[in-house]
Specification:
Rossmann fold; UDP-N-acetylmuramoyl-L-alanine:D-glutamate ligase; alpha/beta
Length: 505
């Protein structure tokens, strides 16, 4: 699913109107019917409804919804804010339709003073003040209105976007002046701001309503941002030949696990094997030998010369992929070995965890990294790599994109909507994954999966796309049986085969 800017959304509406063809008013009616159906699925007609409509087309949607709800027996109060005495043409028409239908219990057009209604528990507020066209923080009376709604006990459903939330960058927005919806009914496509963790408090539950905007326009229009979905990753899968053998399935090298962190090496190694690599060699300190052999008998152990740390780079000519960093430690000897390893590596690389922490402490070394390298940082690791803490998710995503372009590599910024930042500036958000995966070791599993896919012969781009999708899908399948609270990283490995089967069906 593509994510369009507010300007592109406007062009999509315009193109649909011109080429379907359909009038803008009838398109608004189509949207209102979809919104009304969604509201009726959640609240019956015994629920008192208060509609707040702005002067633009978002307000026009709200007025049409008010009329349709009233016609279905809902008790609806409507407040239309027209403080500049200027309504959009479609909003003005829907005002007339509402008044002519006499379906609203009460209609108030606010031009100067506003006496807000009571919003007790059990009331439903329909927020149609401002939609995706908003380009600056709310202020004055509208800001006060938002605060009043947020302080009430009513439930809130927002049309397209919670009023006050902008569709893209909210870096300089005012949190107190944004509606906190219980349900957001967005039209046709998700907006970029919906993918940011720090905006989730405003959205509540999110539903995307198909209002049949032009598929021709959507297909033909380029977008920097998109959401990676099942139909995007299914074609990426490499079928396994009936005559395959371990030599043809690729050999992966994992450098992981200082003494005391062998668990990270175990998780990454198991995940790498489950991702389909024909053979996995794990390079780890001598003291990890026994636990690694017992925990992952399918892997081949390669012992470092040191007892407790990684200290000696490995020749990679015989390997198809390298994963480095899980539980590695950050000693100076390990740091020197790491940069030597990365500089001399002849195969695709996945760097995670302590590999990233070392590079963050030696940022000059990043100029020596090979093109196509894959980083998988969580937000704090990304902040360290960037050299300063980001104030919000939008800023952090921007830094991840800058880093991907500068390295000419791939950055998977982990989170609920993990973001794959490509070297060409494009970003794909992952549609799988859940909060149960916020547990130690989850990132080690991701490193193992991507390394295994690289060893299997996937390109860096496809290994990242497929790897993060499978990782999240394994988590989604796991919580269906064991729930979010009890999910641990090894469960992701357990459910990874089911994730593959899901995509192969």
């Amino acid at each position: 699913m593509k994510i369009f800017t507010s300007a592109q959304i406007h062009e999509l509406d315009k193109y649909t109107i011109e080429h379907e063809p359909i009038t803008s008013l009838n398109l608004m009616e189509r949207a209102a019917k979809a919104l009304t159906r969604a509201i009726k699925e959640e609240w019956n007609n015994r629920t008192p409804v208060v509609v707040f409509a702005g002067p633009g087309n978002n307000g026009g949607d709200a007025l049409a919804v008010a009329r349709l709800l009233g016609e279905d027996g809902y008790q609806v109060q409507v407040y239309l804010f027209n403080i500049h005495n200027k309504l959009s043409p479609d909003c003005a028409t829907n005002k007339k339709r509402l008044l002519d239908s006499k379906s609203a219990k009460q209609f108030v057009e606010v031009t100067v003073n506003f006496d807000p209604p009571q919003l007790p528990a059990g009331t439903l507020v329909v927020d149609g003040l401002f939609g995706s066209g908003l380009n600056k923080p709310l202020a004055g009376g509208f800001a006060a209105m938002v605060k009043y709604i947020n302080q009430s006990e009513a439930q809130v459903v927002s049309i397209d976007l919670p009023s006050g939330l902008m569709s893209e960058d909210n870096s300089y927005n005012i949190a107190a002046n944004i509606i906190r919806a219980d349900l957001t009914l967005t039209l046709q496509q998700k907006k970029l701001s919906m993918m940011m963790a720090d905006n989730q408090a405003y959205l509540g539950r999110l539903k995307v309503l198909d209002i049949r905007l032009s598929q021709e326009f959507i297909r033909a229009t380029e977008s920097r941002f998109s959401i990676l979905e099942e139909n995007d990753v299914r074609p990426l899968l490499h079928p396994r030949s009936d005559f395959a053998h371990k030599g043809s399935m690729g050999t992966a090298l994992l450098i992981a696990g200082c003494y005391g962190m062998s668990g990270a090496a175990i998780l990454a190694t198991k995940a790498c094997l489950r991702a389909g690599a024909g053979k996995v060699i794990t390079h780890t300190p001598k003291r990890n030998y026994e636990i690694m052999q017992i925990s992952v008998p399918e892997a081949v152990m390669q012992m470092d010369s040191e007892e407790t740390i990684f200290s000696v780079p490995v020749d990679t000519e015989d390997y198809n992929a390298l994963g480095i960093g899980p539980g590695l430690g950050t000693s100076e000897a390990t740091a020197i070995a790491l940069i030597a390893q990365l500089r001399r590596c002849t195969c695709p690389i996945v760097a995670d965890a302590d590999a990233l922490n070392i590079l963050a402490s030696h940022r000059a070394w990043m100029q020596q990294l090979p093109q196509g390298i894959i980083f998988t940082p969580h937000p704090r690791e990304l902040d360290r790599l960037a050299g300063n803490t980001s104030n919000n998710c939008t800023e952090r995503l921007g830094k991840a994109c800058e880093l991907a372009e500068r390295l000419q590599g791939y950055i998977i910024l982990k989170g609920h909507y993990s973001a794959l930042c490509h070297p060409n500036g494009k970003v794909e958000f992952c549609s799988t994954g859940n909060s149960g995966m916020a547990t130690a070791g989850s990132g080690d599993v991701l490193t193992g999966i991507i390394t295994g896919l690289l060893a299997r012969g996937y390109s860096q781009e496809d290994a990242c796309r497929l790897g993060m999708y499978l990782h999240g899908l394994a988590g989604d399948l796991a919580i269906k049986e064991i729930g979010k609270e009890s999910l641990i990283a090894s469960d992701l490995i357990k459910y990874l085969p089911m994730a593959f089967l899901r995509l192969e069906d």
